[in-house]
Design brief:
The structure holds two protein chains of two kinds.
Chain A lengths: L8 E6 L5 H15 L3 H22 L7 E9 L6 E8 L23 H8 L2 E6 L5 E8 L10
Antiparallel strand pairs in A: 1-2, 2-3, 3-5, 4-5
Helix pairs in contact in A: 1-2, 2-3
Chain B lengths: L9 E7 L2 E7 L7 H10 L7 E8 L5 H16 L3 E5 L3 H9 L7 E3 L8
Parallel strand pairs in B: 2-3, 3-4, 4-5
Antiparallel strand pairs in B: 1-2
Helix pairs in contact in B: 1-2
């Protein structure tokens, strides 16, 4: 069984932490069907988890009843096959220039999510939307998985 | 037994001399990380010289769980204590590597290796 390209699976969740394991399970299975190895699949799952955590904590300030839309799509073909994940929230828009990784030599709690996302995914784009909220688009190419080693 | 929040992934706390062994189980993510941090910091009340966090039953951890461990390490270092992570899964190790904390934490395969 494999995934049909360009057919989007949409999950709509509330901004409650109890939804996170459900999204992880769905994504885990999708990564397996697309052909990611274990390490890359973990990177994709972890990235989406971190992104959702940021939405819950920062965009919605911990409110557990706000909507988050998650679109999962297999795009491309052959060596270009990739998974594209779009997260849409309806919180206050964030200036993409302000979303940055922090200095990892400073060993302290917090602020690691953006670094993890940028490390694990091949492309990451934050886009404030005219109607309010932010769209985060992340792409991971299946054939890039051998390059996703820790530096 | 512990008196932790029911959300806490800490399943048990054992003492061996001045070393405390904290047994953790289940996924550590945003839904439990606050309770996890409270449980970890609570073991410091009895001023252990060493904290061993047994993670053999933790299949998954996100950066909020990592933050809890970093906070514990910082508190321990202030008091001259040490800590060790035991039985980390490939996925937990991967998170530590991605965040470049694998060289900050002492990681042991077993409690015996950690000196318990």
């Amino acid at each position: 069984m494999s995934m049909v390209p360009n057919r989007t699976i949409r999950l709509t969740i509330f901004s409650a932490p109890c939804c996170l394991p459900v999204v992880r399970a769905a994504l885990e299975k999708m990564c397996e069907l697309v052909g990611f190895d274990e390490r890359s699949a973990h990177g994709v799952v972890l990235s989406v988890d971190e992104a959702l955590t940021n939405v819950i904590r920062h965009a919605y300030k911990g409110a557990g009843d706000q909507p988050i839309e998650i679109d999962l799509t297999v795009v491309g073909e052959g060596s270009d096959t990739a998974i594209r994940i779009c997260l849409r929230d309806y919180g206050p828009p964030v200036d993409p220039e302000r979303i940055k990784s922090r200095d990892l030599t400073d060993v302290r709690p917090g602020g690691l999510g953006v670094h993890i996302i940028k490390h694990c995914m091949d492309s990451v784009e934050y886009r404030p939307l005219d109607g309010g909220g932010t769209m985060l688009t992340m792409v991971k190419v299946v054939s890039s998985q051998k390059e996703s080693k820790v530096p | 037994m512990t008196e932790d929040s029911p959300d806490s992934p800490v399943r048990g706390v054992r003492w061996s001399g001045s070393t405390v062994i904290v047994e953790v189980a289940g996924d550590i993510d945003l839904s439990v990380s606050s309770a996890f941090q409270q449980s970890l910091l609570k073991v410091l009340d009895r001023k252990p010289k060493k904290v061993v966090v047994n993670m053999v039953d933790v299949p998954y951890m996100d950066s909020s769980g990592v933050a809890s461990l970093v906070k514990l390490l910082a508190r321990l270092r202030k008091s001259g204590g040490t800590m060790c992570l035991v039985g980390v899964s490939d996925r937990v190790r991967n998170v530590l590597e991605i965040t470049r904390l694998d060289s900050v934490f002492e990681v042991c395969a077993t409690e015996e290796e950690a000196g318990v």
